[in-house]
């Protein structure tokens, strides 16, 4: 597996919430600690939820934004950034809405599910900038009325992709091209339950790439991965890449 990594010409690293877990950012589907074990996804992560109760949704994302701003990249993020200097080409594709890959030094990260730090108008899409500073939100957030769009006065929404929404077209096309063109994909810390992102490892394998999975739990990728490395990304990845 180490030899395959050394010989690879184009490596794709596909990350999910598990890569940020050791930074203290909760995953979605882990039992007990995952966000969906504690909060109702349908009341928080859909366009209908925002239409029904924008203050509930905005406040919950303010809490998550505060937690993300206080978090720091962990050894897995740093190992991925370092790997880019050791292989001819590397593309990081993340489902995460945090900026921990960028803060570890990765460039050109493809964000399939948006970026929490890039909110925009719910109606007209005009980008909006957060004020400087970290909001002080309690666990789970409180109701916070979202700001109004300076252009059309509609509410500003978090810059993420909710269930039922299409992925950003450019990012999805980049991800498809990278998955189909790579010769090795590392799938790290994703349950591979959310589509269409979960299709990418299969696309890579179908076009001849080797697939390495790093995850302490089993996933639907177990059967197609050439190597399954059970363990925490922040320990397994630096050990693999040193
Ligand atoms: C560790 C670790 C450690 C822990 N080290 N590992 C086909 C079939 C069925 C349904 C669909 C389908 N195609 C589309 C759908 C609908 C839907 C979908 O997939 N639903 C499924 C849940 C069934 N998809 C969509 O709606 C998508 N849009 C779409 O398809 O558009 C086309 C369309 C348009 C209109 C109508 C119809 C279709 C959009 C999906 C958007 C997902 N959004 C979220 C929230 C983002 C905002 C936010 O942050 O709040 O994205 S949901 C959530 O799941 C988040 C994540 O990015 C995403 C993936 O989760 P991830 O990263 O895999 O995290 P977990 O928690 O699931 O797993 C963590 C893993 O880490 C675990 O395995 C742990 O073991 C591991 N781990 N510690 C390494 N230390």
Automatic annotation (TrEMBL):
Q: Which residues bind substrate?
A: 61, 64
What does the record give as cofactor?
Zn(2+)
Enzyme class per UniProt: transferase
For the ligand (NAD(+)), the binding residues are: 95-98, 189-191, 215-217, 233
Domain named Deacetylase sirtuin-type: which ranges?
1-242
Its predominant location is cytoplasm
Task: Specify whether Membrane is a keyword of the entry.
Answer: no
Keyword Thylakoid among UniProt keywords? no
Q: Where in the cell is it found?
A: Cytoplasm
Q: Which UniProt keywords apply?
A: Cytoplasm, Metal-binding, NAD, Transferase, Zinc
Q: What is known of its domains?
A: 2 residues (Tyr-61 and Arg-64) present in a large hydrophobic pocket are probably involved in substrate specificity. They are important for desuccinylation activity, but dispensable for deacetylation activity.
The Swiss-Prot or TrEMBL record describes its family as follows: Belongs to the sirtuin family. Class III subfamily.
Q: What is this protein called?
A: NAD-dependent protein deacylase
Natural source organism: Denitromonas halophila
